[in-house]
């Protein structure tokens, strides 16, 4: 008899009626409506076990909330991608082989032309559209390589906490990562943390602080965050174990928090200016010394000024010790997808396979572990 467990791509979205939540498999784009009871029904599947005799669990299985070792159909986006890559490249083979063949042809024949109009009318994407092509192939390859095999061990309690978080606000440049990403970040950070360590989270829409205090009582965790709704939520859920201050990092870190932390973590804005002041705050709040660590989540290929990231890190004395590529996953929402497709189409790239290349479900970011060399 087959065993089933929770997909690592589980997340929640609000349904139309109040009190309702949709539980989703983000990689498949499938969902079922759920209530408080649903989390209880799913809880046993934190570890693999046979499917119980329960029609709701059957629906959860149909929506890919539960997965197994058994062969399964790929998400629709992969089926569409494979067909488009075959027809474009004329090649046969695995999805990754088709992607390689199509990339070679695309770079020879289908590259977008740089924007020819007045520069003030073009954002960074139109001025350097080759970055969008790099991104499309890189993220498609990441999805095919890392996100098709079911993994075990998702923390369902974290998913439930995530289901209550306040709405995402673009004015604070928020972009939520998946619950599994937060869980993995915390696991990675704990490898570097000693009992009694002080941790600072700079901006926490990814709820890293909650996952950290939930995982262990060994650390003292503080958060600086601008969004008042998020501050209230973190205070409510984190209780006494978490210190959360509403604070604008543009003003730097408060004096009492300078040179005070063993580990700082942040997922800074992608605009060049925001990136710089978040990194400055990180460097200022770390204890001087070789053991202090910054865990930084970002994707250089999508930030406004990738070259400046490397010089900023150097100027601030932040040295990359390790990097974990394509570590963080965020929903690639349709707003961005349409913007990216329109930019590439407008500059001469063909509809197919560009559209299918932009069909992957996640935006990725790397996770950099940096020491402070000053
Ligand atoms: C900057 S956002 C994440 C951005 C994301 N990596 C992106 O650009 O796609 C991370 C967190 O920082 C918070 N934040 C944004 N601006 C801030 C500021 N000036 N001071 C403090 N927190 C801020 C947001 O509310 C959010 O919780």
In short:
By secondary structure, the protein is an alpha/beta fold. The chain is built from 14 helices and twelve strands.
Radius of gyration: 22 Å
What profile does the largest beta sheet have? 7 strands, mixed
Distance between the first and last residues' Cα:
58 Å
How many DSSP H or I helices? 14
Task: Give the strand line-up of the largest sheet.
Answer: 8-7-6-9-10-12-11
The CATH class of the largest domain is identified as Alpha Beta
Question: Mean pLDDT across all residues, rounded?
Answer: 94
CATH topology of the largest domain: Rossmann fold
CATH superfamily label of the largest domain: Vaccinia Virus protein VP39
Number of strands: 12
CATH architecture of the largest domain: 3-Layer(aba) Sandwich
The low-pLDDT segments are: none
How many domains would you count in the coordinates?
3
In percent, how much strand structure appears in the residues? 15-25%
What descriptors fit this protein?
12 strands, alpha/beta, Rossmann fold, 374 residues, single chain, binds S-adenosylmethionine
